[in-house]
Known about the structure:
This protein has 201 residues and is of the alpha+beta class. It has 2 domains: 61 residues, CATH 2.40.50.140; 122 residues, no CATH class. It is built from 9 helices and 5 strands. Strand 2 and strand 3 form a beta hairpin. Helix 2 crosses helix 3 and helix 4 packs across helix 7. The radius of gyration is 18 Å and the shape is globular. The protein starts with a strand and ends with a helix. About 10% of the residues have low confidence.
Amino acid sequence: MIGSLAGVLALKAPPALLLEVGGVGYELEAPMSTFYSLPAVGQSVRLLTHMVVREDAHALYGFGSSAERTLFRNLLKVSGVGPRIALAILSGATVEAFSMCVQAQDVASLTRIPGIGRKIAERLIVEMRDRVGPATTGLEFGSAPVGAEAEAYSALVALGYRPAEAVRLLKNAGSGAGAGSGSAHVTEELIRRALQSAARE
Length: 201
């Protein structure tokens, strides 16, 4: 099993990339979440990998973080989810955003990811609930309740923000928002601060 590769990035053509390691070129596929963090062609890079062995081919997938690879592997355990759908999920949402959707049972946001229909979204929520961390993992939203965070996230996605962008805006907005107030008030405050943050950029 190949666990990681370190070499020179020779080609970037999402979702495919070519990594030259010791004179050997390894073809990999990677989610857009990994592509966003890749250096320029010709630069050195190290990627964590996962190999999928099929009767007709061996496919190698690359990831920029252990969290991405862990989520990819857990997604492959879900009935009806193969590497293509797993890559689509990681390309359409950050690990944190996906976790929020699952914990909040947000079928609507999951179905906005290309290739994810309602049945698969519902299956993901049921089967991934115990495999993802709390909805606030890595987000440090402060004292706002999880329900408010999930509602604010759903609202931002409904307004057209990409899942990763919604998570980033909420992270910027969440520090101390509405501490001690009711959930509805906190949700409105989070959305207001997130939109203000977006307007300042």
